[in-house]
Amino acid sequence: MISETPKEKPRFKLHPVAILNSQRLRRSLMDTYDQKSFYKYVIGIILLILSIGSLFYTDKLVEELEEREEREVQLYAEGLRYVVNSPLDENFNVIYQVIEDAVNFYQIPAIYVDENNIPNPNKNIKFPAKVSRQERERIIQEKLEEMKLEHPPIPVELGKGRAGKIYYSNSFLLTQLRYYPFLQLSVMLLIGYLAYLAFSSARKAEQNRVWVGLAKETAHQLGTPLSSLMAWVEYFRSDPSIDPSIAEEIEKDVIRLEMITTRFSNIGSIPTLRQEPIADIVTHFINYLEKRVSSKVKFEVHNQLAEEQTTLLNKNLFEWVIENICKNAVDAMSGVGEIHVTLQAPPRAKEIWIDIADTGKGMTKAQASKIFNPGFSTKKRGWGLGLTLAKRIIENYHAGKLFVKTSEVGKGTTFRIILNADIVEES
């Protein structure tokens, strides 16, 4: 007696034209995404070039102004030397006044210290109103200590072995100019950051409009053939010459299409979230999905959650996420391998972690960073939208997270879903 091995349910194959159209759409989405990313990088590079150019130019201005102020102080020192060493019948007051005016014009703080190390005249040192003599001397001494750290003193030769010194610090204008590049850089970075936020917001808004329009149109287009199919199901049932199992199988597919239509119609609308037993939903859906993929793919669910653990979910949309990730895993394994789904709640965290690990071909870091981009896919067929929609459903509708936890080429990939957990009271 010959035993027949059970045949797998034939998989639906896309028409070559449909495959070509999906590839065109995927390339179009990727081109749009890459083009917008290119503009983002161009803006960043332009801001960087402007910032670097501004830093170098301002630094050059600072150096020139610093040299000029040093020359002004040297002239001031020369003026003091001439006044002290000049004969009594020579009048240098006019020249000295011009030099003093130049120092005062640039507001260069300066203190002259005589040969006895006693500070005498000072220029551009600000004192509080109604300051006492002792307080004035203390302020001069503090300023003098600061000046000694800023610049080497300018000597004033007084003759007969005597010499004084002039200590000075940068003018307020030079100080402003020295710190201006950092302020300017901060402003440019802020402008760049705001531009990036505006660009990202506009891009997300545009993508959302595309997603919503595409989903609504898909749901609308599916409505008419579904109504027709339901009519055919009733017709087959009413005809006694037609095997009733045919109508039952068609009805199963129609119900499946109705669920898909409901999913697409929910995109762009605020979904209804209900308290659902997360472990039961995942387990039941994995059992359902296991019968509809290759029999060479083994599914295992590892539930580490409390029995009564619930969370806010939209069941239809959440099952869509699980389906997209699992089907992506099946394709990555070429229909042969294992998929492990682990549900756990980390200690002292109000979260639920759902890890979906496969034994597929894995991804490089570059691929993992783009896996959720619209149109990106490692497969030859498909639109590259499944994981993008899954991420949006989890993050936009369930306030959770979806990301690639680990991926190693030749060993497999693990996706992690994080959801907010309801508190379970221990009995």
TrEMBL record:
Keywords: ATP-binding, Kinase, Membrane, Nucleotide-binding, Transferase, Transmembrane, Transmembrane helix, Two-component regulatory system
GO BP term, pick one: phosphorelay signal transduction system
Spans traversing the lipid bilayer: 38-57, 179-199
Enzyme Commission numbers on file: 2.7.13.3
Highest taxon of source: Bacteria
Domain Histidine kinase: 217-423
Catalytic activity, as annotated: ATP + protein L-histidine = ADP + protein N-phospho-L-histidine
InterPro entries, per the entry: HATPase_C_sf, HATPase_dom, His_kinase_dom, Sig_transdc_His_kin-like_C
Protein name, UniProt field: histidine kinase
Species this protein is from: Dyadobacter jiangsuensis
